[in-house]
Design a protein that fits this description.
With 159 residues, the chain is mainly alpha-helical. Helices cover 65% and strands 8% of the residues.
Length: 159
């Protein structure tokens, strides 16, 4: 068992993975915001466009889950994207209570404009990593995500 007693000023957060991931994500988002300033796109809008480009047509909840965004934020963002003609929204054929969201041609063009900026953003963040190290990092991150999902599923079955 790990000794949880800590002394003030011991910098324990430096070894706490959730904190490190949060800090990295926050820094990446700040840098991406700065890179996107010259374009009429926010990080939230980029995330929705990216998720739709990667997955095709999705519901609002599907976008929220894949983009790791709150559902009300996704709904507002999708409404803005619909207004700007970048996505379309229609009732699902199977169940009209659900809205299906898809990229439009203009949305695909917007994605194509932003994608090189996002790739450069990632390249800068991973500068100095070999291809093997990048693959290992991806594998570790995916394993963490699977562990979190398995824990959440187990918790849901207990409740």
């Amino acid at each position: 068992m790990t000794d949880t007693r800590r002394e003030p000023g011991d910098n324990w957060l430096d070894g706490f993975v959730p904190y490190q991931i949060y800090r990295i994500t926050n820094s990446l988002n700040q840098r991406l915001r700065a890179r996107l300033r010259s374009l009429p796109i926010s990080v939230s809008r980029w995330r929705v466009l990216g998720v739709l480009r990667a997955n095709g047509t999705l519901t609002i909840n599907g976008i929220a889950e894949r983009a790791a965004m709150e559902q009300p934020t996704v709904s507002r963002t999708v409404s803005q994207l619909v207004r700007d003609g970048l996505v379309s929204r229609r009732a699902a054929k199977q169940d009209s209570r659900y809205m299906q969201v898809s990229l439009t041609a203009a949305g695909q063009a917007a994605f194509d404009t932003i994608y090189p900026i996002a790739v450069e953003h990632q390249t800068n963040a991973l500068r100095g990593f070999s291809e093997s190290e990048r693959a290992t990092l991806q594998n570790y991150l995916q394993r963490i995500q699977r562990n979190i999902a398995a824990e959440a599923a187990a918790q849901a079955t207990r409740n």
